Amino acid sequence: MLQQQVLQRLSEDLLQAEEAVREAHATATHEENIAENKYDTLGLEAAYLATGQARRAAAIRQALARWRQFRPLPYDAGKGIQLGALVCLVDAEDRQQQLFLGPDGGSMQLVSGAQIVQVISTDAPLGRALLGRCEGDEVSVQVAPKRLQFEVLRVL
């Protein structure tokens, strides 16, 4: 279910990015935006924007492809946390958070029942730190000036 939500969100993001590419390209190539002097840079700026938006769309397409090919395996306590695991962490203040370890797409939040689930990848420091860990293990990551510590409560 979480994987389907990620695919849906990425598909929506791709549509928005492709529309932004079309708009920026249209602005860059519109006849009214032809530079008349060296200070007339609207067309050039729109071309740079179109290039950036095209790169963003390409990155989303790659993420979509990885998520479509992704086949999460059931949690195996012998191997510890792997891609596809749904992990519940608790911090020192007894706050819990749910994480879904996926192949890509950090900074995406999903809803599962009444819970907020943060999607992270193994490229993220916390994602790397979780790999191979099991329920009851301590995990710590350095974030800016402080070190955050968590305990793995549950893994699904």
UniProtKB/TrEMBL annotation:
Highest taxon of source: Bacteria
Spans through the membrane: none
InterPro entries: GreA/GreB_C_sf (IPR036953), Tscrpt_elong_fac_GreA/B_C (IPR001437), Tscrpt_elong_fac_GreA/B_fam (IPR023459)
Domain Transcription elongation factor GreA/GreB C-terminal: 82-155
Pfam families in the cross-refs: GreA_GreB
Protein name as it appears in the record: Transcription elongation GreA/GreB family factor
Organism: Sphaerotilus sulfidivorans
